[in-house]
Specification:
The strands form 2 sheets. Strands 1-4 form a two-stranded antiparallel sheet. The chain contains 1 helix and 4 strands, in the order E-E-E-H-E. With 56 residues, the protein is mainly beta. It binds iron/sulfur cluster (2 copies). The site of one iron/sulfur cluster has 14 residues, from loops. Its cofactor is [4Fe-4S] cluster.
């Protein structure tokens, strides 16, 4: 399962450069492409709003 970004996202952009497979796109909230995400968790670690969570 891919990680997901919730409405808690404040569109700060911090997660964007952290993704090794460029699965994150700008937006409000930002969006993770589930077909690209490899569940590495790097983006969730840096999000100041704790808006990124493992998918279920
Ligand atoms: S979990 Fe890893 S691969 Fe998935 S969007 Fe976040 S940084 Fe990218
Ligand atoms: S780091 Fe968190 S708050 Fe910032 S753009 Fe990414 S998901 Fe949104």
């Amino acid at each position: 399962m891919a990680y997901v970004i919730t409405d808690d996202c404040v569109a700060c952009g911090t997660c964007l450069p952290e993704c090794p497979v460029e699965a994150i796109s700008e937006g409000n909230p930002y969006v993770i492409d589930p077909d690209k995400c490899t569940d590495c968790g790097s983006c969730a670690e840096v999000c100041p709003a704790e808006a990124i969570h493992p998918g279920n």
